Amino acid sequence: MSAHAFAHPNIALIKYWGKRDRQRNLPAVGSISITLSELGTQMRIRPDADLSADQLSVNGEARDSLLPRVSACLDRMAGASRLPARIESEANFPLAAGLASSASAFAALVVAANEAYQCDQPQQQLAQLAGAASGSAARSLYGGFVELDKGDTDIELQCLAPAGDWPLAVVVAITEAGPKPVSSGEAMEISRKTSPFYGRWLEQQPHDLDEARSAIEGRDFERLAAISEHSCLKMHSVMWGSRPPLIYWNSATVACMEAVREMQARGVGVFFTIDAGPQLKAVCLPEHSAEVEKSLTQVAGVIETRRCGLGEGARITSV
Ligand code: PMV
Q1: What is the pTM of this model?
Q2: What is the whole-number distance in angstroms between the Cα of residue 18 and the centre of ligand 1?
């Protein structure tokens, strides 16, 4: 049976960095994210008895190098004796560039596979399966503000507020469209083994999660801005303190941060967050999003901007 699913990427406000179990891909810390609208991955899975192995295309091109991770995810879902499948993934934004493309891809993959192989798994189980493939992907199963609790044995997901309840906007400033030099999985291991700040990062995460949860509950933008920027800069400090250092920013990333600071000084409701890549995401009040986008477009080195709202979780689609 052929199945189609669509999922949006998500960006973490309270970041996930580090794994406690590499085998099961379990995170060392919980995290809180927002699911974006507009950007997304459309996934199609067609099990086919005539195939001898899975086939994967991404944006119309065969991508055999990504196949082992995708096939392993399907095996975990439907068993290794499942039918091979044609898997077609189409994303409407740059891949592997710190824009959470693996999050939307694996969230869409597990939702489509659940239907295609008739696995009938509940959403919490789909989140485990997506998370086993890419830590942040579990969060894209849900819409709006999402918390991932690292749990004792398994991760647990919950929606803290649906997208429509606090409709923030996000302007993504793309400063480099190419893939990142070091994958986040590899980089997290380097940080865990070598960064002198890693232990403090783990210790402080419960406090940051509490603070963000309260800010979201109280719809307190300033409070959410302060703790989100702190979490982002702390994660990058862990990376910078690693050996070798993990520096994902470029000069345009820093110039975008300065532009956000300048807008904040003028009373614009905006804050930044940056993931394992040089793109800056400016989270803002919807009434300020046009001004934020205009300002970031003018920053030297910004190639393009994308304006999004908050979106829904991964879902089955008809095409
Ligand atoms: O899910 P991964 O393995 O691509 O790791 C994501 C890590 C960050 O994007 C940097 C932070 C996060 O919580 O999404």
Answers
A1: 0.96
A2: 9
